[in-house]
Amino acid sequence: MSIRTRFAPSPTGYLHVGGARTALFSWLYARKHGGRFILRIEDTDIERSSIDSVNAILEGMTWLGLEYDEGPIYQTERFNRYHEVLQQLLDSGNAYRCYCTKEELEQMRARQKARKEKPRYDGRCRSGAGPREGVEPVIRFRNPLEGAVVVDDMVRGRIVFANSELDDLIIARSDGTPTYNLTVVVDDLDMGVTHVIRGDDHINNTPRQINILRALGAEPPRYAHVPMILGDDGKRLSKRHGAVSVMQYREGGYLPQALLNYLVRLGWSHGDRELFTVDEMIELFDIRDVNRAASTFNSEKLLWLNHQYIMNSPPEQVAHHLSYHMGRLGIDPADGPPLTEVVKAQRERTRTLVEMARNSAFFYREFEEYDAKAARKNLKPEAVEPLGDMLENFRTLPDWSGEAIHRIVRETAELRGLKLGKVAQPLRVAVCGGAVSPPIDVTLELLGRERTIRRMERAIAWIAGQNAVATQSDSG
RNA sequence: GCUCCCAUCGUCUAGUGGUCCAGGACGUCGCCCUCUCACGGCGAAAACAGGGGUUCGAGUCCCCUUGGGAGUACCA
Length: 476
What we know:
By secondary structure, this protein is mostly helical.
């Protein structure tokens, strides 16, 4: 039998990293076994679902490259089917109408809690309650009273639930709409899902779903409950923990590959390996190797991984993603050196694309002003002469190459009896505005002769200006 | 409260009864390289939650305690 997995988010917010990892695991499992991966949108809670959320989820999946083979399937389009199953359950006696009011149920729960019991429906309508005026009934599933449900979970092993712990859950609201536990069961059944891979917050729902499945005369799929991802405070990851939306990582300058690699290693490992291409993940991943314990999201390690991918991915690929961030800064890459060259020059010193874009802006447009600290330290009167020397040489340099530029910088230092840093640093600040850039020869080569000369002149003038101000205030 | 799940360095993890005075990675701290920032190289500190068993032998199996998490909805 060919394997079919699914990712079934409810569209009540963006795609967050926890959901993305669950989706990744499902996707990998299907890919590894040559099966199919289905995307299903669980939007039966009309109050809380939104089209914006659907789009946000789709956008996140696309950016990560988790393409689905079927779907998206919307549960709201399957109401006829759910009603059919509901009727079937009613007819077979596996479900019944319940006329208890919300108030009654709340009181029941309050009393149970006061007695330190587990709050649950006591089954008062189970043996055939008659209609009550002004009460639209809900439909409840008639859960077996005795016996146990055994789940052989692919990551947890065997879990046993006593039916006596379960109550008769609501499978249709009083407005007739089906609830989650019914729709998952029907959908997984209809869609031929063979492996349900989901967060372990669903473990407690599993025995109920299995009971419904059995009442329908179906065999349950295999289950794999993967652990949750916790925030820095040890609590379940949520919107309170800041950047948890997948798309926020795009904005933050992360490569989708890096996020995927980080996510797959959270709860799964293959010996001592840290870096996996997507193809390697598909080859090596096994749901049985997934950890049982919850893990904490560590932004520092993600940053390191992102840097690894920036350094080791093909420059063209990095450049492609970088152009998005250049665009966000209002920069047109046509106004300067090729982006792939910038990537090669910057990749070792920037851990995110946002950083790379920001630190490379000077290649494409003038910077507003010098970094105060860098200027104070390097653009001093004693820098004027070496800068002037180099400027003259640069004007007449026959070939504007890194080697030639490097030779001039080195010779200037030797001629003036200065350490290389004393010459290179002022030059760096002059052309890029700050104290940090790629090696000076690489920087100048990419920047081009025109811009280099203009900025050196500007720096020399600026130093003179500073000097004049200082002299003035001295005499005043 | 009740039910279920979980427990190796700060974090992610390796480890499936002996080869573990516990290995790797991130981070941290030294040193080296160096025109800045980095990259890179070398090195260091850092963990089997506690207690009982089982066994010749336990991080590895069992039980209890403790600590965390989830569920307990006419949410998914």
